[in-house]
Amino acid sequence: MAATQPPDAQAPCTAADFDYCCPPELIAQHPIADRAGSRLLVLGRDSGTIRHGAFRDLPALLEPGDVLVLNTSRVIPARLIGRRDNGRPAEVLLVHPEPDGTWLAMVHPGGKLKAGRRVWVGGGEMPVRAEGREREDGAEIEIADVVGGGLRRVRFHGMDARDVMRQYGTVPLPPYIHRPPDADDRDRYQTVYSRHDGSVAAPTAGLHFTPEVLDAVRARGVAIAEVVLHVGPGTFKPVEVADLRQHVMHAEWYEISEAAAAAINAARAAGGRVWAVGTTSVRVLETPARTALPALPAPSAAPPAVVAGSGWTDIFIHPPFTFRTVDALLTNFHLPRSTLLMLVAAFAGREATLRAYAEAIRERYRLYSYGDAMAIVPG
User: Fold this and answer.
1) Distance between CA atoms of 352 and 50, rounded to whole angstroms?
2) Percent of the chain residues topping a pLDDT of 70
3) Taking residues 319-332, what's their average pLDDT?
4) Is the model's pLDDT at 206 over the cut of 60?
5) What is d(CA 19, CA 17) in angstroms, rounded to the nearest whole number?
6) Nearest in space to 331 (alpha carbons), one of 317, 320, 315
7) CA distance 24 to 27
8) CB–CB of 110/117 below 8 Å?
9) For residue 50, how many other CB atoms are within 10 A of its CB?
10) pLDDT tens, 92-125?
11) pLDDT tens-digit profile of 124-140?
């Protein structure tokens, strides 16, 4: 059953309440050689106590009967670098396919790529369009429509979008990693358990796991449940409004299978704790809880069941928020004023969260996607 909420997790906040000073040199630009060699800051959700450890010691924090919830989405090579008709560079970041065969995308330069413009991706010169013929060594991306929120609807000519990504796409590393992606990123910017293509950013809390750590989790008598949330570029969208209620999240596709729901519900019924790996897993678990159960149960009632299903979620979790499913959270360290930091603060309390971040900075933790981890645990 979910733990008591920290008192200030229920206090209204503004975007400015989630500022902190991040030393640029602590922003990890590369992954460390050993995934499980990351550091782990452990924050007590109720007490606010902080202790330090190593990620490979995570299994010792779990108890028999707990359930660990993993997001098995896989990052696609969605960043396409091409040229406009005038030969100048352009970038298309694919977000997700639409039912009509087009794709939603973000583009750069946005002011130049209006409806009707085209971007050439591939080798050789720009194609000469004649009698409907297309070159075979690349593809044209047509800007079909401007849909708002920084998004475009694009259409591919000459090659299928997934073939273009496979041949020409690169890993869409976050903007705070100031280097081009290399061959190692194709593997290291994926979790070892990823299997469902669709994300344009990694569920980074899972990057620390190795097969050996997962085996140790199972050996503790802990169940593993797999869910899916395809992370969109909105994960990096800053909150630019003071009133958090006015911030609009990009919708992302999620799925909870019957097997995952059964494993989570069985653990909760037996008194086990639900550990969400990453903010994406939290959003998956809390979405149907809000849709199916708009009213909280009475204090003496059994916790609401996790319901299998799929769809689109734009849930924005920030203080004040009452969690109905998650008891413990494993996460990385996030950008100031980001929706990810706000979710963590809603779970652990804003003051405790910022105190933990200050401690991590004093102790020279590595931050953000390729950085170290934090576990927020009951107690």
Assistant:
1) 9
2) 90
3) 95
4) yes
5) 6
6) 317
7) 6
8) no
9) 17
10) 999 999 999 999 999 999 999 999 999 999 875 5
11) 555 444 344 444 578 99
- The whole-angstrom separation of Cα 5 and Cα 111 is 45
Domains in the chain with CATH codes: 7-75+185-377 (3.40.1780.10), 79-168 (2.40.10.240)
The number of residues making up the chain comes to: 379
Give the residue among 320, 332, 327, 353 at the shortest CA–CA distance from 279: 332
Amino acid at 144: A
Please give the Cα distance from 306 to 290 (Å, whole number).
11
Say which amino acid occupies 254: Y
For residue 59, whether the previous peptide bond is cis, meaning omega lies within 30 degrees of 0, is no
> Residue written as tokens 């009475």?
298
Q: How far is CA 336 from CA 26, 27, 98, 237, 291, in A?
A: 14, 12, 32, 11, 29
Residue range 142-164: mean pLDDT, rounded: 93
Average pLDDT, the chain: 91
Distances (CA, A) of 344 to 55, 167, 337: 19, 37, 12
Residue 170 has pLDDT above 50, yes or no: yes
Q: Do 158 and 136 form a contact (C-beta atoms < 8 A)? A: yes
Signed CA dihedral, 82, 202, 39, 43: sign only: positive
Hey, what are 227's tokens?
């869910």
SS3 for the chain, per residue? Answer: CCCCCCHHHHCCCEHHHHCCCCCHHHECCCCCCCHHHCEEEEEECCCCCEEEEEHHHHHHHCCCCCEEEEECEEECCCEEEEEECCCCEEEEEEEEECCCCCEEEEEECCCCCCCCCEEEEECCCCCCCECCECCCCEEEEEEEEEEECCEEEEEEECCCHHHHHHHHCECCCCCCCCCCCCCCHHHHCCCCCCCEEEECCCCHHHHHCCHHHHHHHHHCCCEEEEEEECCCHHHHCCCCCCEHHHCCCCCEEEEECHHHHHHHHHHHHCCCCEEEECHHHHHHHHHHHHHHCCCCCCCCCCCCCCCCEEEEECCCCCCCCCCCCCCEEEEECCCCCCHHHHHHHHHHCHHHHHHHHHHHHHCCCCECCCCCEEEEECC
